[in-house]
Design a protein that fits this description.
heterodimer; A: alpha+beta; D-Maltodextrin-Binding Protein, domain 2; 2 domains; 4-stranded mixed beta sheet; 10 helices; 10 strands; 14% strand; globular; B: mainly alpha; MetI-like fold; two-stranded antiparallel ribbon; 12 helices
Chain lengths: 275, 278
Amino acid sequence: MPVNVDLVPNYADIIESLKNQPWNSVDGVTYGIPHGRGANLLLYNAEAFPTPPDSWAAMWESDSDQAGKISPYDDAIYIADAAVYLMATQPDLGITNPYALDQTQFDAAIALLGQQKPLVGEYWGDFTKQASGLASGAITQAQGWQLTANFANADSEVVGTVKPKEGATGWSDTWMVAKDTEHINCAYKWLDHVASPKVQAQIAEYFGEAPANAKACDLTANPDHCDVYHATEEDFWTDVWYWTTPETACLDGREDIECVPYSQWVDAWTSLRSS
Amino acid sequence: MITVGRGRGRWRVGALLALPLTWLIVIYLLPLGLLFATAFASVDDFTGAVDWRFTLDNVTRLFTDPAYLRTTARTLGVAAAVTTLCAALAIPVSIFVARAVPARLRPLVIALLITPLWASYLVKVYAWRTMLNPGSGVVEWFLGGSPGFGWTAVVLTLTYLWLPYMILPVYVGISTIPESLLDASADLGAGAWRTFRSVVLPIIGPAVAAGSIFTFSLSLGDYITVQLVGGTSQMMGNVVYQSFSTNLPFAAAMAGLSVAIMIAYLLGMRRLGALDNL
């Protein structure tokens, strides 16, 4: 149900660019309080790459020298990562939003994922497993989280992260209120509590993400937390495409064509993984 | 004379059967029926919720998309390979324990053979993942090379996991063979191999078939081992796992297919006598 942000005092300190986005509003009406965000970065084994890579190419191109040692995300939403790479490398396809793919664009993304499959060491679902693979060198390049790199680097710096020049997908989480909630006052108390600077700082550090409340950056236990996660560098996020559910009505505003809905993303992904 | 089905007797029998029958119907048959029914339902594009409009799409897709045909074929292949390997290991081990190990040590040896069943499934699979790890695993240290993560690793790990389920029935089958039969075979001039083929194997056939029901069905339904040691490989269970939250009807169709395969397998094994001693 819609959220009346006037009843959430801490909403005022939430980073402006996270408010009223396609994934937390409908027709300009706010449906939730932004919680935190992160980018799906290129993680690499620092020993194998003394010079950090700056492109996703080794994870997509069939002549990759990292064949057998890459680790993509094991989920249908990863199709969007293929679309992000195509936006940069095949502009003729006309993709302007990786979550708004018509059938032609979608087929191109699936073809790219098919090209990637022989290069894959393991698709990842469990970040601890991915971290141990990256640390041991069994995996040299992967799509993953800053959190994963931090986890692998607990003892020594073995995994690096970079947001490649093609851009990246990412996530931006939102607190919402269920329809017909019985204790609505309690729900609003929670929304305000969880958006407060101190709580935001604690969650951001525990979970490994950039807080949505900019004031949280002064309160983190690690004073560099917000820098590591680029919490307030707006430039960093301009080419990060936050996870959004694809619908038949194209999210990029095109009205002359239908887009492929998420249920078909899942079907295509399941089929691709089974082939 | 005991007469049931009349007066108080009928009431008693009814009361006695009520609980198991309720269990069977409510907990087992009804959900299975719902599973099959769901396989023919549609799904809402936007919410992913089940929409009870009849469709054959899910079932058709299972039998027309080459990806799923291959997944089914590969899963059957894994289940068959694991079952064959388990039988090939369990028969000599059981013969050894039943004929060569002193009687007083037999319970101990059997207990040792089934100790893997006392450890957690996940611990065992993660152990295999560590051992098979290319580049750093124990298998590479000893053999100079590792099969790495893939189908070989899946078959190896599943064989290790399910072997005790084959050993138990086969051992019981072998220990029931009377010594006199083997003596008679030797008296008639049969060598060890001939005795094994013509006397032992026909007798323990039903026991192997019974053990194979465990190894085959447990392998057919597995989806965790293949995630941990299978590299990019997928089995039927992984398709169910990937689909059930967004496309429940398709997941139901795939799950229904493995139930159908298992029913066919059970019917086949019944012909071999696996279920005679239940």
